[in-house]
Amino acid sequence: DKKCEMIVVIDCHMTSSAKYADILLPDCTASEQMDFALDASCGNMSYVIFADQAIKPRFECKTIYEMTSELAKRLGVE
């Protein structure tokens, strides 16, 4: 981490990476966003699992897409 100018982590849990972050942004949980299941629970299945949003994000939590879109807009890189 000494060679990095800044470490930014987007996560919904305090991971080992998040402990080193200069900026830690809260990610939405799986229940708070529409997404495809891409973790080990899918295994070697020949299909994908789509999960619909079950609850609204709490507090000021935004999806990664919303965060990066807003950053791009503010940096003039739309």
UniProtKB/TrEMBL annotation:
GO molecular function terms attached to this record: metal ion binding; oxidoreductase activity
Domain Molybdopterin oxidoreductase residues, every copy: 2-74
A family per Pfam: Molybdopterin
Family matches, as InterPro entries: Mopterin_OxRdtase (IPR006656), Mopterin_OxRdtase_prok_CS (IPR006655), Prok_Mopterin_Oxidored (IPR050612)
Superkingdom per UniProt: Bacteria
Assigned keywords, A-Z: Metal-binding, Molybdenum, Oxidoreductase
Name of this protein: Molybdopterin-dependent oxidoreductase
Source species of the chain: Acinetobacter baumannii
